[in-house]
Amino acid sequence: MAYLDRLAACNNADMTRYKPLYGRGARIGWVHEENLDLLSRFPDVFSVADRRVDLSLTLYDYDTATAALDGALRQLAADGHIRAWRGERYAVAARFGAEPLMGIERAACALLGIRSWGIHVNGYVRREDGLHLWIAERAHDKPTYPGQLDNTVAGGQPEGMGLFDNLVKECAEEASIGPDLARRAVPVGAVCYRHEAADGLKPDEMFLYDLELPADFTPVPDDGEVEAFHLMPAAQVMEIVRDTDRFKFNCAAVLIHFFIRHGLLDPDTEPDYAALCAGLNQGTLLGP
Fold first, then answer.
1. What predicted TM-score, i.e. pTM, was given to this entire model?
2. Going from the N-terminus, what domains does the chain have, and what CATH number goes with each?
3. How far apart are CA 193 and CA 13, in angstroms?
C-alpha cells in the first residue's frame, strides 16, 4: 500500500453518475442517479430533468428555500433515507465565507452532494526523539466511522460560526483542551476532496490547524465522541497511514499534509511526493 492510496480513497467518486443540483442561481450540489426518484417525490421542491436537478423557482430567498428543503429532508429521514439526523444546520454557499443561499441539516448534505466545511487539528508534541502526535480513537458507538482513528480534534462547521470559534469549541468538547491553549493553534492550509460514501457524496473542504501541545498535557475525551487518545511517534503514525485504512478517510489526508509540511516526507525518497501535493486538493477541480 502507499500514501497515494489514502488520497484515492478520499477521491473515489465516479462523477459520471451524478447530476448537478442548482438552487437560487448557483450550482449547490450533486445528486446520484440512484436518488433521483427520491427527489421526484417532492415536485414543489425539486425539479428533476435528464441532465440536472433544480430547486423550485418559487424558493427565491434564504428562508423559503431553507424551510422547503427542510420539510422534504425530514420526510426522507423519516423514511430511512437519511440517517443520524443531527439537528445541526450547515450553510449552503458557493464558497466558504460567501453569503449562504440556504441552510441544510448536516446529515442531509451527502444525499444532495452539498459541500461541507470543517476544521481538523493535529496536536503534536516535540520530544528528544522527534515529533509525536496525539491520535484520537473514535467512539465505538459513534454512528459514523466508529472506532476508526482520527486527528486530535475535528468537527464540522456550523452555520453562523467562525472557524476559530468552532476550533476552540471542538477542542474543549472533544479533548478538554482549554481556550487559552486552543488559541495557540496555527492555520496551515486546507484539503478538499470528493468522497462517495454510503449516504452520498461528500465534496468537502477541511481547514487545517497545527497545535503544539505541552509535553505534560494529555487530552481527555469529554463529549463521548472520542473513545481514547494515544500519543504516537510520528514514524508510527506514518506507517499506519501508509499501510492500513485504520484512519477515517479524510483524517489520513490531513496527516499526509502534516507529514509534508513538517519535512517527514522527502521528495528524494517518496516517489509519489508531487502527486501527493497535488492530490490534497483534488476536489477543487470541478468546483463545489
1. 0.93
2. 3-11+116-284 (3.90.79.10), 15-112 (3.30.750.160)
3. 9
